[in-house]
Amino acid sequence: MSVQNPDDAIAVIGMACRLPGARDVDRYWSNLLAGAHFLAPLDESGLRSKGVPHDRYARDGYVAVSGAVDAVEHFDSPFFGIAPAEADTMDPQHRLFLEEAVHALEDAGWAGRAAGQRVGVFCGSGENQYGRLLPEPDEAAGSHRRMSDAPAMLPLRVSYHLDLRGPSVFVNTLCSTGLTAVHLARQSLLAGDCDVALAGAVSVQLPHEHGYAPQQSAVLSPDGTLRPFDRAANGTVPGSGVGIVVLRPLAAALRDGDRVHAVLHGTAVNNDGSDRQSFAAPSVAGQRDVILAAVADAGVDPRAIGYVEAHGTGTPLGDPVELAALREARERLGVDTPCAIGAVKSSIGHLDTAAGMAGLIKAILCVREGVIPATVNHRELLPSADVKGSGLYVNTRRRPWPENGRPRCAAVSALGVGGTNAHAVVGHHGAAAEPSGTDGAAPEVFPLSARTENAFHGLRESLAHAVTASGDRAAADVARTLQDGRMPRELRRAWVARSLPELAALLKEEEDPVPAGPLEVALDLGSAVRPEPSLTDRLPAFGTAQDRPDATERAFLLGYAALEELAALGVRVGTVTAHGAGEYLAAAYAGALDRDVALRCAVRHEAIRAVVHGGDLSACERHLAAIEDDLRSHPPARPESALRSLSLGETVPAGTAPSVDHFLDVAQASVMDGEPAALPGDAADLMGALASWKNWLELAAWCWERGANLDWARLRGTSAHTVALPLYPFDPRRHWAITAPDGTPALPDPKSEAKSEPVPAAGAQEDVVAVVMETWRSVLGEPDVEPDSNFFALGGHSLVAAQIVARLREGFGVGIPIGDLLDAETPEGMAELVREQRASAELYSKLTAHHTADPTGSFEL
Predict the structure, then answer these.
(1) 262-271 and 420-427 strand pairing
(2) Can you give the C-alpha Rg of the chain in angstroms?
(3) Cβ proximity of 254 and 284 under 8 Å
(4) What's the maximum distance between 2 C-alpha atoms anywhere in the chain?
(5) Residue 809, strand partner residues
(6) pLDDT (tens digit, 9 = 90+) per residue, 369-405?
(7) DSSP string spanning 285-314?
(8) pTM, whole model, 2 decimals?
(9) Can the peptide bond before residue 533 be classed as cis, meaning omega within 30 degrees of 0?
């Protein structure tokens, strides 16, 4: 029975990984269930295809085995706004972690709502081996590279590029880094330092996809087989990978409908101190104590822990110590119930700093799914292990794991060289979220976005497949996951549907995405609008407005309520297009006219139209005079949106106050008006959107497609849950320093000399803009630079600007303050700064030329 304070329970609401043989969590789990492993040796042709030099793999004892992740040389730099030149030299560990951080937040249903929030980042990486092998940069890029190469930049990059405002902490305890990061993230959540925490680690071993040459007495296996806790264990095998979890207090997660993979009940971290044979040797006492501390912190019945994902490196020294520590901990806890032990390293290799994350994600999947996968390569328990009477056994086959009256719990160990031990206890969260209603109830908005068309269509197709095989997922849950759980990008499309089959049919129509564009709303108060209860039940303000007896007043108030609701949803209308009486409503919304004044003018305007048709022109004059008096007593102000008049065929720009005569002309036009002008096709019909809830959602979807970031929770108005949906398909480019002769990724030769792009010559009649553009291309690594290109949109920042300052000083002999350069933003703007500096320098030279004359010359008194 658990005695843990429920307020201390932390939910795992999101996960992501890229591991040997697995590009995501689902593939990782299927590999584990199949008993697959990805440490298969390469033959000579395979080694050559990976770019391994012959003199390396021909060495005596070379082991052609490594746990490698696919495509470490690829990265979707434009997605994160990182310049290609910076991405080329960026640590591939940072690139992998950035992409998987997005996937983890998407899995948690938080990618669309994390920006600007108190989301903490706790993570670590291995040493930057890639940076050491790159050629030395030129002097201008040196300071940028030195800062960028630092491993501690990892959490800072994540916080910056994803706009996360919680603590951003780099963690490194060597092999226990990942689990230590999880412990610190949990502590930060419990302390209230953040509301959501991203925790994980990454490690990329270089040379990548290569083998290794084990040295005698080292920890690496001489035969390339990792055998955890086995009699024949002779060492570990290196691997690469990244794993991330998203954590949130359980109570908050349940309140907001987050999906709970598992509950993180307790964690602990300690160090062996000097109670060991040597600095690198493990300690039974240290490992035992961290297990006891984590179980005490968890407050769970230790008999509920039916599985331990061990560190299990397959080394003759480490494995016996780990088993002894587990046995002693269970003895002190008075537990002898059956408990399986496993170690995923035999399947994917030892991932160094990320090892604990691979183990934690496996344990979470075990408690969630109720299955314990086999530990591959274990045949016979090592003879030095004494586990009799402890209930411990190494699991060698896939077996079901029923709850048997108590929630499933698993423990995870990660043990670092140098003595930092970490242990965690995770449990199954038995209460699965119920689907939010049934399909066919009310329509929902299903938004989808991507940065490129390739990524958009890939995501559209995968989503169509997912909702076709939706199982018990409800439309509301899918809609909520797409709305809150995905980061809105540039190319967008949103569909309104009542059911998942209807959505699947819409997705299969292969419509292209809509790029962001101007938001123009058109309104015609002459439209006969009677909102259905489906709309007024959700938005009572519309119901109140439609109760007014006067048709013009009713239409005006409905339109005004609609525009106010759009603003509350986050829609900033750029242009309001209207005809006749609607132009006063447009002016009221934009802030050019007081609402009551605008309403009176609109009513009188329609009265004029009615009188004209009746023939009493004197009444027209009285209404026109009343409009003029009202407007002159309350002169128009500057509108926040442009006002497009269909009556007059002109547009009042935003920020420019229209004259009283403008609105008088609108009123005068009603006297001579024939049929009202048709509303433009490129604008949304506001009044038409008020017919029903579906029409209103279609208007909101139209606004989102063109760049509005909606308050989805306000629009939904009902609770919903996060569900599993396809993750963003990045559209990566190759970012690697050198290409091997056969075109495969290869590491740069550390002996190669640095190659810096020459600074364009600065002749007397040169085109300064062209020179600045070429400097941008060189520093940013971006070939598509135009005179009006935006520096920040191409991935520029202050460290990159410092390189441009140095290049311009070298090429033109001018010193431009970096702040001024950043303010300029475009090549044209920077070129203008260069011209100004050079002109100032020339003038200064002329004015001071006489000071260089011979001071011994004569002068008259």
Answers:
(1) antiparallel
(2) 34
(3) no
(4) 114
(5) none
(6) 999 999 999 999 998 888 888 999 999 999 999 988 7
(7) HHHHHHHHHHHHHHT--GGGEEEEE-----
(8) 0.87
(9) no
